[in-house]
Amino acid sequence: METVILAVVIAVVVLGALGGLIVGSRRRKPLPPPPPKAPDITAPPAEPHVGEEAETPRDEPRRTIEEVDLPGGPAVVVEEPPAAEAPELEIEVPEPTAGRLVRLRARLSRSQNALGKGLLTLLSREHLDEDTWEEIEDTLLTADVGVQPTQELVERLRERVKVLGTRTPEELRGLLREELLNLVGTDLDRTVKTEPEGRKPGIVMVVGVNGTGKTTTTGKLARVLVADGRTVVLGAADTFRAAAADQLQTWGERVGAHTVRGPEAGDPASVAFDAVKEGKEMGVDVVLIDTAGRLHTKTGLMDELGKVKRVVEKHAPLDEVLLVLDATTGQNGLVQARVFAEVVDITGIVLTKLDGTAKGGIVVAVQRELGVPVKLVGLGEGADDLAPFEPEAFVDALIGD
Hints:
Elements: H1 2-28, H2 100-103, H3 105-108, H4 113-123, H5 130-142, H6 147-164, H7 169-184, E1 202-208, H8 214-227, E2 232-237, H9 244-255, E3 258-260, H10 268-282, E4 286-291, H11 299-312, E5 320-326, H12 331-344, E6 348-352, H13 362-370, E7 374-378, E8 386-388, H14 391-399
Parallel strand pairs: 1-4, 1-5, 2-3, 2-4, 5-6, 6-7
Antiparallel strand pairs: 7-8
Helix pairs in contact: 4-5, 4-7, 4-14, 5-6, 6-7, 7-14, 8-9, 10-11, 12-13
């Protein structure tokens, strides 16, 4: 009996041991990895819908600005940058007019080949026969001196050369200089009249054909007057040419001169009238009136120029009427001058472009044609290239050193 109980106990112990071994071995095996966790996917924002698919807006509580609590402390003031001021136009100081033609002598001397040097070369020949005198005459005519002045000069040269006999280069130059000065005229009053007695301002009207540089000459004349210490008002009565008033105003601003202008295609006589009126109110010395370029073959346009003159003279008489001529046009310029003189009583001539291909003889011819002097000459494109005409400097430039 005891033996049976002992065998049962042993069997139970053996089974328990075997069971513990099996459980331990199972615990030592690695566990399989856990399944991957599904990632969180953020849904894309819903596309907006329109029309019938649009959602009805939800009523959400909103707060007004009075209900919002602002942080304490002083309010922050944002300063706006100051507005940029337009730069002031610098007033220019023109060159003094005294001796200006002498300083521009090199430019003027470009026209000496046809007249001055040509005559000196011919007069220097040992024998002055009829053929030589004909060449001298042709040289003067080619230089736009004109028929009558040419004949007078040739006759005087014939007499003086015959009396002189032997001719040295210095004697010929002196002889020719003297005769050309007589031809140009040294006794003419070439002053631009801008100082009438007992009143202000002096009134100057500038006339001429399109393309002669009339508006530019008016602006340069303002510089001449300012350089001589005068105050100026400009009247932009050229209302038919696009940008003419702008051009004249720019010239005026450069020297501090006020410009009176009107609407484009407006009445030029009205602008001229207002310019003189404002000039009187401002107490300036001179009013310069730039008129529209006139074709001398158009009767209606020339009549209107006469109207401008009559309207201006309701204030005061014109002190100067300056005709601007292109020196390169030669004899055609004389035709223009004749027609203008019939309409507005020209008192002086301004010759432009005298430094290029122009021939110096046009100075003589235009004075003979109109009976009025050349008062100003333009010798280039520079702002201070308008000079008072000086006969001595002009002739010296023609014959050279």
